[in-house]
Amino acid sequence: MLGVVLAAVTVGVGSGAGAVGPVAGGPEADLSHHGHVSLWDGRVGVWLVSENHGPSDVSQATVRLAFSEPMAGGRELPPACLWSSDRVVSCRTGALRAAGGVGELALDLRTAALPEEMTVEVATVWRDGVSDRNPRNDRHRVLVLATGDPYVF
Q: Considering the entire predicted model, what is its pTM?
């Protein structure tokens, strides 16, 4: 289903690491993440689009994907991503221009077992010092059943 891994995002660090709340008097942007997750035969497919609705550009942001089930070993990730644990992947979005910046990510992973369901949490965890007064559209919790169907968020 998602055999191709898009490397349109990169993992990053910076002086504003952990800064997800509003920055008084600083630039503001509205990041959002949308896409779908599928689970079948111990495989997890994630397709994620990150967007910036403005008003300011974002030089980098990091999105975290947290899985309720551990993933199997030997999992390749795009160069933009890294494993934070056996249940968490963190990926940098790259630069997102105001009102139109888009980053795409696709992952094809394997679970350690064969779960009948799992949850996937998607959240921005770093945005390079830019505040986001509407964090509801960049945080999602998705229940995914092992049907192979895409669960949209």
A: 0.81
